Automatic annotation (TrEMBL):
TRNA binds at residues 17, 70, 72, 118. It is found in: Cytoplasm. The active site is at residue 22. GO terms for cellular component: cytoplasm. GO terms for biological process: protein quality control for misfolded or incompletely synthesized proteins; rescue of stalled ribosome. Monomer. The lineage of its organism: Bacteria, Bacillati, Actinomycetota, Actinomycetes, Micrococcales. The record marks 12 as: Discriminates between blocked and unblocked aminoacyl-tRNA. It holds the Pfam family Pept_tRNA_hydro. It comes from Kocuria subflava. This is Peptidyl-tRNA hydrolase. Keywords: Cytoplasm, Hydrolase, RNA-binding, tRNA-binding.
Length: 193
């Protein structure tokens, strides 16, 4: 049986959230889908938008998933997708925004804490484990005393907007590196930057 990877991009539904920091995970998945010339379609059974594809002919099967729930309710849709495809956490990659990392930086890891990220917390709860791969896309810390929840729901600054396409491309590359070469080799390549 051909290996299958489930890649989830976290975010909130609706046009008001599309270009916010909290939705950077879904933006990365849009980049991956565009690389394969595919468009997301609604998968009602799992309450997600989904693309089934391969990054290259003969490569592993890839299911790109954007939950249609709000961020803090991401677990149900993710658990539904895993069940639908008979997939395990071993091949689950979650792409998400990370305030504890500077804007423009990317960190990769498996498992560990959720760092106050409600989307990750809900996935860990619904899946019964924290042991899945994460592509942590840095969005930086809020300025001054701004509340973190308010900060991640705001759009990127004009300066960040200029650098955002490259950050999305590099994050999508990081997903591909995990799938093609494994976590350790991907970490060596991505973290060395």
């Amino acid at each position: 049986m051909t290996e299958r990877w489930i890649v989830v991009g976290l975010g909130n539904p609706g046009p008001q959230y599309e270009r916010t920091r909290h939705n950077v995970g879904q933006m990365v998945l849009d980049d991956l889908a565009a690389r394969t010339g595919q468009k997301f379609t609604v998968h009602k059974q799992t309450r997600t938008q989904m693309v089934e594809t391969r990054l290259r002919p003969g490569g592993p099967r890839l299911v790109l998933v954007k939950p249609m729930s709000y961020m803090n309710l991401s677990g149900g849709p993710v658990a539904s997708v895993l069940k639908f495809f008979g997939a395990t956490l071993e091949n689950l990659v979650v792409v998400h925004d990370e305030v504890d990392i500077d804007f423009d930086a990317i960190k990769l890891k498996r498992g560990g804490g959720e760092g106050g990220h409600n989307g990750l917390r809900d996935i860990s709860k619904a899946c019964g484990s924290k042991d899945y791969l994460r592509v942590r896309v840095g969005v930086g810390r809020p300025p001054g005393r701004m509340d973190t929840a308010d900060f991640v729901l705001k759009p990127f600054t004009s300066t960040e907007q200029a650098d955002l396409p490259l950050l999305l491309e590099r994050s999508a590359d990081a997903v591909e590196q995990i799938i093609d070469h494994g976590l350790t080799a991907a970490q060596n390549a991505v973290h060395a930057r």
